[in-house]
Amino acid sequence: MSDHTGAPSADTPPPGCPAHASAVHLGGLEYQQTPSQLYRTMRREHGAVAPVLLDGGIPAWLVLGYPEVSYVTSHDELFARDSRRWNQWPNIPQDWPLLPFVGHQPSVLFTEGQEHQRRAGVITEALEGVDQFELTRQCQVIAEQLIASFAGSGQAELMSTYAHALPARAVLWMCGVPQGTTGTEQLVEDLRISLDAGEGDDPVAAYLRVGERITELVKEKRERPGPDVTSRMLHHPAGLSDEEVVQDLISVIAAAQQPTANWICNTLRLLLTDERFAVNVSGGRVSVGDALNEVLWLDTPTQNFIGRWAVRDTQLGGRLIREGDCLVLGLAAANTDPQIWPEAHVGAENSAHLSFSNGEHRCPYPAPLLADVMARTAVETLLERLPDLVLAVDAAELTWRPSVWMRGLTTLPVRFTPSVQ
After folding, report:
1. pTM beyond cutoff 0.70
2. Which of 162, 334, 349, 406 has the greatest CB tally within 10 Å of its CB?
3. Nearest to 155 by CA among 378, 374, 388
4. 3-state helix, strand and coil shares in percent for the chain, rounded to the nearest 5
5. pLDDT digit string (tens) for 152-206?
C-alpha cells in the first residue's frame, strides 16, 4: 500500500489503494431515498465486493453480497475489528467525520479474541438478566406517557416525540437510570443528539455529557448495586474495570437506541403506507410482527457498518483485499441480494437477515430479543391507543435522513382523532 502521507483531496484517493476509476462515492442523494437502486447498480457493475470512497476520498471496500458479508463476519482471523490495522491512517485528517466510528476506543466494539469474548460475555449475561415481561410493561408505561403528551392535539411528529424517546428511556431503565428526573430527560436528549444530530446540535458535546453521566451511574451502582444491567456488569466475575463498564455501557445504549428508534419509525411508515397492512392496522397485533420483520429485510435501520480490517492479503468476491484494507459491511445490500431472493420477493416470515450482523461480533444475545420487545410494544401500543392514525402528508413527501449508515426518516407527521388518555 502507499506510504503517501498527505491528506487526499475530496475526489482523488491516495495512490496504490483499493479504489480505482470506477469507485463509488459512499454518499449522495441516492442514499436519501433509493439506496436499494444504488446497491443493484453497484452489484451489477462491480459484483459482490465494490470499491468505494468514504468521506474525503478515503478508499474502502463495500461488501454487497449476502454470502460475502456472512463470510467476512464469520472469519475474524481474516477480517478483524481492531481499526488500528487500517493502512489508511496516514491519510486520515484529524477532523475526519467518520473518526468517532472508526477511531480505536477501549470498548467491546474494537476488542478481539479472548478479550472480546470476556467483554461480550459480561454484556450477554447482564442482558440475560432483563425480564422481558417486565421490559414489556415498562415500555407500555413509557409509550402511554409519550402518547398522552400529544394525544389531545390530534397530530404529532412521531420520529422525535415517540420513536426516538421510547427506546432511549427503556434502555436507560434497563441500565438502572432513575426515570422521570430532569437528568434522565437531558440524557435522553443528549443520546439523540450524539447519535442523530440535527441542524444546530453539537454531537461532540452531547457525547461527552453522555459519557459523564454514565460514569456517574457506574460510580453510583458500584456503591449501591440494583437489579439492573449496570450492576450486573460491575459485579460480574470477569472483573471489568469501571472504565471498561462505562465504555461498554455506552456501546450497549447507543446500539439499542438509534437502530431501535429507526426500526419503530420505519415499521410505522410501512404500516401506514402499504395497502397490504391497511386491513389489519386498526387491530395492531395481526400484522405488526410481519411488518417489523419485513423492515429488517428491506429498510434495515443499520444500512452499512464500518467495519472490518483485513489481517492479511486475501481474496473476497473475486477481489484482492490487501492487508489493512477497510471493509464496510453492506447489511442492507446483503439483505436484498438476488442470490437469496431470486424472485425479488422477500419473505417476511424468514428471519435470516443480517440486520443484527453475524458471527462473534453480532449484537450479543439477547439484545435482538430486547429490541424486538421495545419495537413491538411501541408500535402496538400506539396503534391501539390511536386506531385511526394516518399520515399527515402524502407518502411521497416523507424523506430519509442523508446517511449512508442509518436508514431512518427525518420526520413522520401523523394525524388522528384527538383523545384524552
Report:
1. yes
2. 334
3. 388
4. 50, 10, 40
5. 999 999 999 999 999 999 999 999 998 777 777 788 788 777 766 667 778 778 8
Whole-angstrom distance, CA of residue 159 vs CA of residue 393: 14
Reduce the DSSP state of residue 413 to 3 states and report it: strand
Per-residue model confidence as pLDDT tens digits over 389-416: 999 999 999 999 888 888 999 999 999 9
Grid cell digits, residue 183: 437528568
Mean pLDDT of 70-84: 96
Q: Which residues pair with 54 in a beta bridge?
A: 58
Quick one: three-class SS letters along 18-62?
CCCCCCEECCCCHHHHCHHHHHHHHHHHHCCEEEEEEHHHEEEEE
Q: What domains are there in the chain, each with its CATH number?
A: 24-415 (1.10.630.10)
For 245, counting Cβ atoms within 10 Å of its Cβ (0-12 exposed, 13-18 middle, 19+ buried), the class is buried
Q: Assess contact for 60 and 18: CB atoms under 8 A.
A: yes
**CA 111, CA 326: separation in Å to the nearest integer?**
16
Residues 398 and 266: their CA atoms lie apart, in Å, by: 11
**Dihedral of the CA atoms 355, 315, 308, 405 (nearest 10)?**
-50
Evaluate if residue 67 carries a pLDDT over 50: yes
Burial of 389 (0-12, 13-18, 19+ CB in 10 A): buried
Please give the Cα distance from 151 to 402 (Å, whole number).
Answer: 30
Element at 188 (helix H, strand E): helix 182-195
* Residue-level pLDDT at 343: 63
pLDDT for the residue numbered 263: 97
Spatial separation of the C-alpha atoms in residues 119 and 244, rounded to whole Å: 8
β partners of residue 59? 53
Burial of 211 (0-12, 13-18, 19+ CB in 10 A): middle
Strand partners, 306: 328
**Pairing outcome for strands 79-80 and 305-310:** antiparallel
- What's the farthest any 2 CA atoms get from each other in the chain? 66
CA distance 120 to 150: 39
Phi, then psi, of 144 in degrees rounded to 5: -60, -45
Instruction: Count the neighbouring beta carbons within 10 Å of the beta carbon of residue 21.
Output: 5
